Amino acid sequence: MRRRILLAILLAVAVTACALGIPLGYTAFQVVESLTREDLAQRAQQIAAILDDEIAGGQQLDLSRVGLAVPPGGRLVVELPGGRQLTLGPELTGATVSEEVPIVQQGRVRLAVDAGPMHTRQAQVAALVGLVVFATVGIGALVAVITARRLASPLRHVADRASRLGAGDFRLDRARYGVRELDMVAEALDNSALALAQLVQRERELVGDVSHQLRSRLTALQLRLEALVSMGEGETAAEARAALEQAERLADVLDDMLAATREARAAGAGPVDLSRELTEIADEWRAPLRAAGRSLRLRVPQGLLAKVSPARLREAVGVLLDNALRHGGGTVSLIARGGEAMPGGDTVVVEVVDAGAGVPDELAAHIFERGVSGSGSTGLGLALARALVDSDGGRLELSTARPPTFTMFLPVPRATDVRGVRWPAERGPR
Q1: d(Cα 244, Cα 65) in Å, to the nearest integer?
Q2: Which of 190, 219, 248, 297 is such that its CA lies 20 to 30 A from the CA of 353?
Q3: What's the distance, Cα to Cα, between the start and end of the chain in Å?
């Protein structure tokens, strides 16, 4: 793309330079000759006027009186009636430029000079025009390079953002390029990223709801089948036992499919050292908080691991710290700890707390919804942060409204974690 833009601009500049330079060079060439001839014609007119006065006064013609009007190295030829001819100046050989004017009292004056100096000036003017054309093309090339870089670099960045978006990276990118059309594409990508992130979040919630409902129904079915096995006799007990085994197998399949879905959604997640990542994030945000007269306190144990995507973790924590900077007050605390047991397994907890006024009661239940904001902001940040955490199999909640405490529950990596999707092996009926 950059090469095409560069070649297109260079071609346009070259065509324009040639279209203007060639006529300009030809015109300048003709102007030099015209000026030379006009100068000769004026000198010849002056000489003819002097000689005409001498002839009218009956004086003897003396060409030395008009010698000052003859250009250096020029030759003056005066033709009089009766075939007489007077000359002044050296004989010229080679190409010459001459002008001839009549004498009122009969006769003609011809003034000639060597054409070499005129041709030299014409060559100089042509060279100057060529230099101007060359400089124009050079400046055009520089402008083309700058323009191509200005257009190609944002296009590559937009393409990279689209690729990352397709790969499941839903982070917002605040970069803008100063080109209206490209900025519109960037805005569209931001909106698409947020929409896709929320879609993934809703899909996860749907999978969780479906799995909960299926588990509840399967559990009830297993209890009834177990009762039928214990109370039944003969073929009834055998059929109930077989049905119970099929229900247990269905429950195993459901567990495997849910695990595969979680792994597919968090394909980019892996074991991350939170002490290192959170320290780097805190270092980035201390300066903005210090500029606002506030401080950031970090508390994270060494060696604490979580299964997340580093880029999504940075974006999600960054959104929470930015929210605390914009809407909170006092010291901001970034705290991480482990050992939280949740229904889906052990989790690591990351909290962002500040000493501000907190979240209003009417907003607390809707704080993560898109467009909800209590201070005139866009209301996109927290919605995106929750979607990013959900994409890695975690969860983001507002634990307490006063003081405002946002809590991220992140999965703990296991020794058996393997990148990719592990679908359950096909099972046949017993």
Answers
A1: 137
A2: 190
A3: 61
DSSP string, 122-189: HHHHHHHHHHHHHHHHHHHHHHHHHHHHHHHHHHHHHHHHHHHHHTT---------S-HHHHHHHHHH
Token readout for 280 is 């780097």
Cα R_g (the chain), whole angstroms: 46
The 10s digit of each residue's pLDDT in 172-205 is 677 777 778 778 888 888 778 777 777 766 666 6
- 331 against 16, higher pLDDT: 331
Residue 379 in contact with residue 359, Cβ under 8 Å?
A: no
- Asked, for residue 168, whether it belongs to a domain, the answer is no
DSSP state of 59: P
Q: 257 and 290 in one domain?
A: no
Kindly report, residue by residue over 128-161, the tens digit of the pLDDT: 888 888 888 888 788 877 777 777 777 777 788 7
Tell me how far CA of residue 356 lies from CA of 102, 326, 352, 359, in angstroms.
104, 10, 12, 9
What is the C-alpha to C-alpha distance for residues 1 and 156, in angstroms, rounded to an integer?
A: 9
Q: Is residue 348 part of a domain?
A: yes
Mean pLDDT for 94-121 is 88
Instruction: Report the CATH number at residue 17.
Output: 3.30.450.250
Give the structural domain span for 112: 2-119
Contact 403, 356 (CB under 8 A): yes
pTM of the entire structure? 0.47
Tell me: the pLDDT tens digits for 302-357? 989 998 888 889 888 998 998 899 888 999 999 999 865 554 558 899 999 998 88
